[in-house]
Each structure stands twice: as C-alpha cells, then as structure tokens.
Design goal:
Layout: E1 6-13, E2 16-24, E3 31-38, H1 40-47, E4 62-68, H2 77-81, H3 85-91, E5 94-98, H4 131-134, H5 137-152, E6 155-165, H6 167-178, E7 185-189, H7 199-209, H8 213-217, H9 221-226, E8 236-241, H10 247-251, H11 253-263, E9 267-272, H12 279-296
Parallel strand pairs: 4-5, 4-6, 6-7, 7-8, 8-9
Antiparallel strand pairs: 1-2, 2-3, 3-5
C-alpha cells in the first residue's frame, strides 16, 4: 500500500522529531490524522546515505509502538502529556498515536455526547447503519495505520507493540488479542477491561454493534482472554490508580485479572494508591511501560 502523507508540522524533541501527519484514509473514507515520534537513531541512519528520514526506511527499521488514547482525546494528547519521547529516544523506539475516531462523519448524534461518536470510536468496526460507513477504527489502526507505520514510515513490522489508556487500553488489549502475532507486546493504563459490563461499553457497543450482546463479546478483552491460552507468554502489564473515579463503575480490572488466570496468561496488574485516571498518572509510570515494551521488542 502506498499513500501520500501530508506533514502538518514537526518539532525537534530529544534529538528526534515529533511529527503530525494527515492522509486520506481508505479504511475510514475520510481524512485522518496521526502523530509519530521518530527517534534519533533514524536520523543517524539518514546521515549514512539517505537524504531524508523517509528514505532512511531502506537503511534499516526501528521497533514501533502504537499508543491508543482514551475518550475525547486526539492524536496530540499522548504526545503532549505523557512524556514518552524521552524514553522512546533512549530505547530507539518509534511511537505512533492515531486520532480516537473519524472527524466529520455526519452521523446523527455523533457530537451530542463525549462518550459516543466523535472522540469515542472504541477501536472497533461499527456494523450498525450510519456508523458503519466511517466508524471503522479497528481496520484503520490494525491494518491501514500499521501498514503506513511499517511500510511508508520506518517501523519494523516484526517488532511492533501496542498500549493505551482507558478506551485506548481497551483497544490495545482487544486488538492484541484479535490480531494474534501482529503485536509482540501489550500493556495498558486503566483500561476499560470488561466493556460489556459497564455503561461506557454498553452505550458504545449498542450504538456501533446493535443489540446482539454476543457480538459485543468479540470486543471485550476479558471475554477474549478467558477463551485464549497464554497468548502473550512474555507477560502483559496493566497499571491502575486506586483513586480513579471510574474504577468501580467502568473499568473492572479484576475481570481481566481473572480471565488471565483462567488463560494462564502472565499478568502484572499494579494497583497504585492515590492515583487517578489522568495523565499525571500516566506520566508517572510511562517509563516503566516504555522499558517493558523495549525489553520485548
């Protein structure tokens, strides 16, 4: 697949480059934006004969780590708030963060609430009329964006990982389980771990997938894990703040923990006193997640 990427802007960052791109998405049918951090190791490759970072693709690739953000976020949120670039530069990892939904799809009601529609794509392909035309975030992230990152950009498809936060933690866990072999590592911050049980998931799945709850289970990380057999033998890392206001009603980390026990999946689920749901929490533990993925990629 070849696609033209429009470079919107770039910023020097820890001797690498923070870039923001736009392109005409084939999966979504609308323009989509995503962000990329290119670590300094790529510039070293470029200096060895390639005229640009893009041409450095042929000079060798670097591990690539996809981050999926939560409700209301954009492709900028993680890159601005998490402080991950310092550690990506240290480990030579390319970071990729997509937007959280299509923009301007024109679906009635898509801008009426913050937990459905714009900014709330839930990283699945909608099947219900209206939504199904453009809300195809699983196809976008797991296929189109993955190919862009590993063909047009210099990510190594054989060394790819995925992680995310909240709705994006749900996305990271489910995409890792639904696309076996594509990602070598997976972690999450405060994921929506059992969306078929919580109000956010019920609202989104009902709108995007209809009222057949069996169809919902195909996008529930706890259900998918319970039916698996140690899909990630090198382990999964999940961090959860115990002062998270969404913990009791929306997140259900204990359901994912129980599913991992059933699947004999190694899981490190760390519960942190005093931490809430936001990026102060994420930025505190981002170094651990970057190291976790670097060791596996």
């Amino acid at each position: 697949m070849t696609q033209e990427l429009e470079l919107l802007n770039e910023h020097r960052c820890f001797d690498g480059w923070q870039r923001y791109y736009q392109h005409a998405s084939q999966a979504i049918g609308l323009p989509m934006r995503f962000s990329v951090y290119l670590p300094p190791q790529l510039q070293a490759k470029a200096h060895k004969g390639a005229a640009s970072l893009e041409q450095a693709v042929g000079q060798g690739r670097v591990p690539v780590l996809f981050f999926l953000a939560g409700l209301t976020c954009t492709e900028e949120t993680f890159m601005i708030k998490a402080g991950a670039q310092r550690y990506a530069a240290e480990h030579g990892i390319m970071l990729v963060a997509p937007d959280t939904s299509p923009r301007g799809a024109g679906v009635p009601g898509e801008d009426e609430g913050w937990d459905l529609g714009t900014g709330a794509g839930f990283y699945l392909d909608a099947t219900e009329p209206g939504w199904s035309t453009h809300y195809r975030m699983e196809s976008y992230v797991a296929r189109e964006l993955f190919q862009l990152a590993t063909a047009v950009l210099p990510g190594d498809a054989a060394r790819a990982g995925i992680f995310g936060h909240s709705m994006g933690g749900h996305g990271a866990l489910t995409l890792a389980l639904r696309h076996p072999g594509q990602y070598r590592s997976v972690s999450a911050f405060a994921p929506i771990a059992a969306p078929t049980r919580c109000p956010w998931g019920e609202k989104a799945f009902g709108a995007y997938l209809g009222q057949n709850r069996q169809a919902w289970e195909a996008h529930d990380a706890s259900v998918l894990m319970a039916e698996a057999s140690a899909p990630y033998p090198a382990g999964i890392l999940v961090d959860q703040g115990l002062s998270d206001g969404f913990l009791a009603e929306q997140l259900y980390p204990e359901a994912f923990e129980q599913a991992c026990e059933r699947a004999e999946q190694p899981l490190t689920l760390r519960r942190h006193e005093g931490y809430d749901h936001g990026y102060y929490f994420i930025s505190t533990f981002i170094q651990d997640h970057m190291r976790f993925h670097a060791e596996r990629l």
